[in-house]
Amino acid sequence: MADVNRGNRPLSPHISVYRPQITSVTSILTRITGNALVLGGLMITWWFVAAASGPGAFATADAVLTSWFGKLVFLGSIWALWYHTLAGIRHLVWDTGHMLELERAERSGWAIIGGSVVLTILTILVV
User: Fold this and answer.
1) Element (H, E) at 30
2) What percentage of the chain has pLDDT greater than the value 90?
3) How many angstroms separate the CA atoms of 37 and 3, rounded?
4) 3-class SS at 13?
5) Which end of the chain has fewer CB atoms surrounding its CB within 10 Å, N or C?
6) Domains of the chain
7) What is the pLDDT of residue 19?
8) Which residues contact 124 (CB under 8 A, 6 or more apart)?
9) What is the pLDDT of residues 23-73, one digit of tens each?
10) Per-residue b/e over 30-68, b at no fewer than 16 CB within 10 Å?
11) What is the pTM of this model?
């Protein structure tokens, strides 16, 4: 049975107790980017389905996807794809038992953030 006389203490460590660390921020961003990629994938799927449905449906989908909102979503999707890929590679390296020291883990966190931004810019310039 739970102890009801704990006072004003939280039942478990609360987010306000800890200072955000780059490793926790990158972990959260990996989850967010994974979910955000679903939005970009759904938009591309909608575009293909609309293309197969006919000219009216395609015109509507194409208007949305080529609008400022669609371009913004795709820009975010490009960054999310690069970030998620680099974070996945970092996790594969961690799975081998390498770069688990705190300093190296923090450096690799900043590297995937910076690398994803650089690769996003290169992708936009090339495409």
Assistant:
1) helix 22-53
2) 81
3) 43
4) coil
5) N
6) 22-126 (1.20.1300.10)
7) 78
8) 75, 78
9) 999 999 999 999 999 999 999 999 999 999 999 999 999 999 999 999 999
10) beebeebbeebeebeeebeebeeeeeeebeebeeebeee
11) 0.81
